[in-house]
Amino acid sequence: MGASTLSFMALLTLLLIVSNVQCNPNYGEALAKSLLFFQGQRSGRIPQDQQITWRSNSGLYDGHQANVDLSGGYYDAGDNVKFNFPMAFTTTMLSWGTLEYGKRMGPHIKEARTAIRWATDYLMKCATSSPGKLYVGVGDPNVDHKCWERPEDMDTSRTVYWVSSKNPGSDVAAETAAALAAASIVFRKVDPTYSKMLLRTAQNVYQFALQYQGSYSDSLGSAACPFYCSYSGFKDELLWGAAWLFRATNGVKYYNLVKSLGYDDQPDIFSWDNKYAGAHVLLSRRALLNGDKNFEQYNQEAENFICKILPNSPSSSTQYTQGGLMFKLPDSNLQYVTSITFLLTTYSKYMAATKHTFNCGNIVVTPNTIRSVAKRQVDYILGENPLRMSYMVGYGPNFPKRIHHRGSSLPSVTVHPQSIGCQEGFNPFFHSMNPNPNTLVGAIVGGPNQNDGFPDVRDDYSHSEPATYINGALVGPLAYFAGFY
Question: Where on the tree of life does the source sit, at the highest rank (predicted)?
Fold first, then answer.
C-alpha cells in the first residue's frame, strides 16, 4: 500500500471521526449550562462567585412576616414566588442525578452540589424555624403574577405560607423529606455533619407528613391552586418519601412503609405532581442491582411504565411529534420529557449493569432500546429537531430569545439602577418584540407544541417559560450522555 493510499485512509478515518462527533450534541457543555441556570433563579444574598452577573440580592427579608428567616431558595420559574412543592422535587431530582451520574459529571459535580445546597439550606430553614409548622412558600402568587418586575425590585406582599397539624400538607411535606433524604446521601462523604442534619430533618418532616395526612392544596387554597395543585393526591409523595428514606437509612421502618403504601397506581407520566413512576424505578434498583427479590414487584411496575412510554410498544400511551419529541401535555411539555427521560436513562443503566431485558408484548426491550429513546429526547432539546432550535437558552446558535422570565426580560440593576415598579415592566419590556437583554444561560423552556412549532414570544408562557424542575430532571441524563459519548 503506497503512502498516498495511507494518507487517504487516514483522512477518511479523520472525516469519519469528525462526522461522528458532529452527530452528538456537546453534552458536557449542556451539562455545565444546565447547572449554571440555577444561579439565575437564586433568591437571597448572591455570593461573590456568582457567574450570572445580571442577578443581585433579592428577597432578603422573606419570612419576616412570620418572624423567621426564610431567605434563600429558588424562584420556581419566570416569576418571583418561592413554591416549595416544585422546589423540593427539583432538589430531589438534582440529588438523584448526582447520585446516579456524579462520576460522569467530572468537575461539574461541585456545581451540582452547590445547586442542591442552595435549595436544602432554605428547605432546612422551612422545616426547623417554628415547631409544629413546615413553611411551604413565600410570596402571594396571585399578586405576583399581576406584576412584571425584577426580583431585586419586589414590592409585592411576601406572604408566608405553612402547613401544620390542623392544616396538613402530606404531599409537600413528604416531598421535602425526599429532597432532604436524597441530598443527605449526596453530602454523606463530603460533609458528614451536614448530611446527618439533612437526614434527621428529613425523618422528622416525613413523620409529620405521615401523622397529619391531607393535601396542601386543600389547606392553602388559592396560594397553591391553580399554580401547583396536588392533582395526584399525597399517597405518591408518601411512597416517594419513604423510598428515599429507605435508600438513605436502609431502615426496616421505611421498608415496611414502602410495602404498606402499595404500588397499584399505573401512571404514564412522571412530574413534580405525580411521583409513582419515580418511586418504582428508585425501588427497582434494589431488585436489579442487589438481587433483592422483595423488590421485584417494582421492576414490574417500572417496566409497565416504560412500556407505556416506548413508541413501538403495544401498550404505549405516549404521543410523539413528527420530529420525534415525546408529547404529554400542551403546557410546558418539556417538564414531562426531562423527568421521564431521567427514568429511562436510569433504568437502562440498571439493566445494562445486570444484562437484564424485558418484554413489552412481543417486543424485547434491551438497555439500548431505552437509551436510544432517551437520547432522542435529549438531542431534540439540544437542537436536533425540525426547527434546528435548541430549547436550552445559550446553547447552540439558535435558541429562545424572548423567554417568559422577569429578570431576563428586564434590564439588570447594574444597567438600570432605578427601580422598575409592578406595572412599569409591562411597557415597554414585556410587550416588546426585542430579545431579552439578559441571557439566562442553561434555562430549558416549556418547549414546542405538538406540531414541533415554537413561536418564541414572551407572553406564551406555556411554551416560553423556563422552570427549575425542567432543568433539575435533565442534569442526570446530560451527565449520563456526557460520560457515554
Answer: Eukaryota
114: domain CATH number is 1.50.10.10
Inter-CA distances, 389 with 2, 339, 450, Å: 46, 20, 15
Q: pLDDT by residue (tens digit) across 241-263?
A: 999 999 999 999 999 999 999 76
User: Is 431 considered catalytic here?
Assistant: no
d(CA 115, CA 136): 19
Structure pTM?
A: 0.95
Q: Residue 238 CA to chain centroid, in angstroms?
A: 19
Question: How many separate domains does the chain show?
Answer: 1
Residue 106 lies in a domain: yes
Residue 6 included in any domain: no
Half-sphere exposure of 182 (CA within 13 A, CB side): 32
Structural domain includes residue 173: yes
H or E stretch including 136? strand 133-138
Read off φ and ψ for residue 112, nearest 5 degrees: -60, -45
DSSP code for 47: P
Is 279 part of a structural domain of the chain?
A: yes
Residue 154 belongs to what H/E stretch? none
- For the segment 161-207, what is each residue's pLDDT rounded down to a tens digit? 999 999 999 999 999 999 999 999 999 999 999 999 999 999 999 99
Backbone φ/ψ region at 314: left (φ over 0), alpha (ψ -120 to 50), beta: alpha
Structural domain boundaries, residue 208: 25-47+57-484
CA 347 – CA 96 distance, rounded (Å): 13
The catalytic residue among 108, 404, 405, 463 is 404
Helices (H), 212-295: 216-220, 235-249, 252-261, 276-290
Distance CA 123, CA 208 (A): 15
Cell numbers at 112, concatenated = 451540582
Q: Which residue has the cell 442577578?
A: 55
- C-alpha cell of residue 356: 437484564
Beta strand segments in 258-375, E: 319-320, 326-327, 358-360, 363-365
Run of H or E including 335: helix 334-354
Which residues make Cβ contacts (< 8 Å) with residue 234, sequence separation at least 6? 170, 171, 174, 209, 213, 214, 215, 216
- What are residue 363's phi and psi, to 5 degrees? -95, 125
